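I hope you will forgive my troubling you with a question about protein structure. I should value your view on which stretches of the chain appear to form regular backbone elements. Here, with my thanks, is the record as I have it:
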Amino acid sequence: MVAIGLQAVLRIGTIRDLREEFALARVRDIRFIPLSCPLPQPYGMAKSLANARQTTLVVVETDVGVTGIGEAWGMPAVNLAYLPLVKDYLVGTHVCDVELVFARIIARHYHFGVQNQLMGAISGIDMAAKDALGQVVGLPVCQLIGGRASESVPVYASGGYITESPDEDFAPQIEAMAAAGHGAVKIKIGLGPDSDELRVKTARRILGDNVDIMVDINSNYTLDLAKASIARLAPYQIAWVEEPLTPQDIDGYELLQRASPVPIATGEALYTVFDFKRLTDRHAVDVLQPDLSLCGGFWQGRRIADLGEANHLRLSPHVWGSGIGLAAGVHFVASRSPYPHGQNAPWPTLVEYDVGENPLREALLSEPLIAVDGRIAVPTAPGLGISLDWDAVKRFMQ
């Protein structure tokens, strides 16, 4: 008979405890908490300005006492309307199995389609379930979904918003991003080719030649306008033109991608890998931009990233919500390899880092994720590696 040392016995006991806890990690309850904060000054995009920032906080409680958090994009009231449906499917499900349930939901309720708030609700639940699972097994989310490719990820500052006084308010926004030392910056355009060139010319003058500038039209143009604008902007060395056309204009994207001297990026308004496949099948895009809070969470985000990799396209997740969505984007990028690049990535995968007025981005978290020298450290704690300031949550509850 082989003697077993005390340390081995304790270790076996610990493993058994972990196995038992893991086996019991089932969804006990799901809560949606609507959050909103008014803005002192409206800002936004060419299509419209926002008077407030809002999101839906998703809380997934498990039978082992572990709670995960996520973020669902869109109008909280609409997300709340979907909650009874998704809870009916998910309560009692193991946190490892939620993706199978999501697939069952969209297959059974195919009349709903996927371009709706049902996917937003699923996205937030998937984030929260991965957060809970990471806490149960003691691993950061990035290692659950692919690995930890780096200790920090690069970001681009998203600002230069359109306001009620766009001519007066634009330059100060760019000056603030320049002072912060961001190496890549995205600005809003889309008010017309003349305005586009003026805004880009101003940004280039303030930022200098060594900062990458991306522009975002927010789907406000038709094909002819997009071509006219890009022709004016190309001499300023633009890194990409984002959402030049409406998401439905796949034909237009294909024609524009062929003609444009500037890379075309899009995807923040697309849901599931099926939407993105319509673009990649037509070779109509250069950079894929899934938003994990609406595209289907990490569940669909990984499939979209794999689709991009299979088609040799770049990836850059869209983030325009709270600090929870930012944390998800950081883990997502940290989990991806730089394929087809090796050690040297000429254009690394960037996370969008919104620098507009938004208390939900920083005040919501006990320790906000802050970009330093153009990078955000990947959290090392289990799950998403973030914790909520519940006093702040109460302040922002609708």
Confidence is low (pLDDT under 50) at residues 8-12. Residues 117-137 form the longest helix (21 residues).
